[in-house]
Amino acid sequence: MTPSEMEARIVRYGDLQPCKTAFIDAHTPGSDQKENFTIIGGGVSESADQHVHITIPHGFNIGAAGQPPKCRNSLHSHRTAEVFFVLKGRWRFFWGRYGDAGEVVLEVGDIINIPTGIFRGFENIGTDYGMIMAVLGGDDAGGGVIWAPQVIEDARDHGLVLGQNGKLYDSKKGESLPDGVSPMPVLNEEELKSYPEMTPAQVVGYGVRRYNDLMSLAGKEPVLVIGEKGVIRDKPGFEVGFLTRGSASTDMHAHDRPSVLMPVRGHWRLIWEGGEAVLNPGDTCSIPADLQHTAVPAMTGEASMYHIVGTDDPAGATWLA
């Protein structure tokens, strides 16, 4: 693979293209300044305006959310795994039918594997623009987003209607539901019973791991963060690993499917059969299947990186199944 071919598979942080109309709460006060990024795979955006940087199937999706202070993402659920790590800022994650069942605050490098089947949201509680990176299970990310009823109702009051076809229609732009397309139905009380109200101990104890703890665990060997034998034991259709300066190796290796490198801190030198490139925090790099490669820190100082690769486990409800 030539350097130019590899560069086409690296999405640089500075080249990310945001969409401000990705979801039904795009006009709702408190959520109307958020930006959605779809980096690898189609994601779950409901807007035709969403730009997809890399369309090659990986068995999972990579995306991101960028938000100014006090901006939140409304309560929603997914049928497949949703994993976040904080790239910039300080974030509050909350969950439950009304978002009051529990919450946790995450800092840079912290990771959360949110259980499938619960309503969740998140808010930038820092003082500057923040960014969280996301991994969603499955190539189609479970077929979309399930919104808490009040989110759909609030959005309608501000001009946005979600069709049963999963597409958004903006009355402020003169749009309306096409003939034959009904509004997305709101979940009724009986259906809402299948969305559990989980305790902080359940969600945090199960799915949250702190950056400093992972730095310690990966002191000499890369650590499997999410996987059947990971520190978070789950099989969401992909594995998440974590490596540091001390656990990086110059030994070349390959995977039988595409994998993804996502630096958190430091600059990393990606080496493969055919060239080299430098990866920086916020960059996302897709490594082709069967390509011999490795990554090592390119400069002195702290260095850390998440690594994602698909598995043969079906992407769907995992530990709640």
From TrEMBL:
<dbReference type="InterPro" id="IPR051610">
    <property type="entry name" value="GPI/OXD"/>
</dbReference>
<dbReference type="InterPro" id="IPR014710">
    <property type="entry name" value="RmlC-like_jellyroll"/>
</dbReference>
<dbReference type="Pfam" id="PF07883">
    <property type="entry name" value="Cupin_2"/>
</dbReference>
<feature type="domain" description="Cupin type-2">
    <location>
        <begin position="69"/>
        <end position="132"/>
    </location>
</feature>
<dbReference type="GO" id="GO:0046872">
    <property type="term" value="F:metal ion binding"/>
</dbReference>
<dbReference type="InterPro" id="IPR013096">
    <property type="entry name" value="Cupin_2"/>
</dbReference>
<dbReference type="InterPro" id="IPR011051">
    <property type="entry name" value="RmlC_Cupin_sf"/>
</dbReference>
<keyword id="KW-0479">Metal-binding</keyword>
<protein>
    <submittedName>
        <fullName>Cupin domain-containing protein</fullName>
    </submittedName>
</protein>
